Amino acid sequence: MIFSQQALNRIAHLAMVSAFALGLGACASNDEKEDTDPVELVEITESVKLREVWSRNIGDIDALRYAMLKPAIIDGKVIAANSEGEVFAFDRATGKRLWETELDQSISGGVGVGNGLAVVADYRGRVVALNLVDGSQRWQTQLGGEVVATPAVGSGMVVIQTVDGKLLGLDANSGEQQWRHKTVLPVLTLRGTSSPVITAGVVYAGLDNGKLIALSASDGLSRWEQRVAMPQGSAELERVVDIDGAPVVRGELVFAASYQGRVVALSREDGRGLWARDASTYHNVAVGAGAVFLSGADGAVHAYNVGNGQIQWNNNQLLRRELSAPAYFGDVVVVGDLEGYLHAMDPTTGQFVGRTRVDRDPIRIPLLADGDLLFALSDDGELVALRLER
């Protein structure tokens, strides 16, 4: 099995990865080495334009440690953070800066919003909650465990997922810990952690062991758990089945996908499986136009029928371009890549319908679609708001 460079970058146990990479170098032919290069972009005929509305540079995102600082939108504000400890609020429509707060910590997890709060966390497990109105600090809490996932905020709780397999429920008003859920992790995992989501008093979380769980937000009691992926093979690298993308809740279903595993649609109520298809991704899926869209670990983009999981199309023209998670925006599907391009695809055919370059650094962080605007954040901190035009 040949792993992509992006996969190797995300393996947490560096010694094992180094040995594996040396083995590949010794046995790979020149042709195989060429196949690791990103494919060249082909010219397309654009029928839509992704027009920049505004942009702001907020400072670097720590790509080497794989910080995934996804911005958040609430109450007409875009809340964004960089790895140096700065948190910003911008007017959603104009990009005007509303406030800025400097924290004496390197931010690695965020931004979670809700209950009047913007919540971020750091590599040492410190969680800070800011007032959404003016950015002033409401509380901070020291937890055990590194945090690289976005905190979930809702139902009067802040839920934190740590890289060592813990889910921690904090009171949104005080930051005091209310409950703890611990999972035993596999020997080897990818660098990264799925971000939990809270919907209607239930926490949904993807785990590094390939399971999706549902917990009560108020007390952390388990409601159900379901295996998304089953480890395969004898080597530890072959058995990596992390769920690193956040679960996506739509209607009565929750969607999730794993690395070297499957993409699934499950019942929100009891975790019963509606359908499952083989897949491999580091990201969350997107749902829209009757389909589930997925950026594969190899750079292929796939669309599955939302009702039965049947494949609708595959686009293999972005292989090895280290794509972001897809976003369903307007009536197109958009992904970012390692050279700062955004690619727009027809959701029914997978054909390219538009392309724009917003930066020269990678766009790894999940895109954020909100009404008539799409927000992208590059590794060097270029935050861009775009509108779809025909």
TrEMBL record:
Short name of one Pfam family: PQQ_2
SMART domains: PQQ
Compartments (UniProt record): Cell outer membrane
Domain of life: Bacteria
Domain Pyrrolo-quinoline quinone repeat: 84-315
Keyword set includes Signal: yes
Signal peptide: 1-28
Key word Nucleotide-binding present: no
Keywords noted in UniProt: Cell outer membrane, Membrane, Signal
Protein function: Part of the outer membrane protein assembly complex, which is involved in assembly and insertion of beta-barrel proteins into the outer membrane.
Family: Belongs to the BamB family.
Assembly: Part of the Bam complex.
This protein's name: Outer membrane protein assembly factor BamB
Organism: Microbulbifer celer
Gene name as annotated: bamB
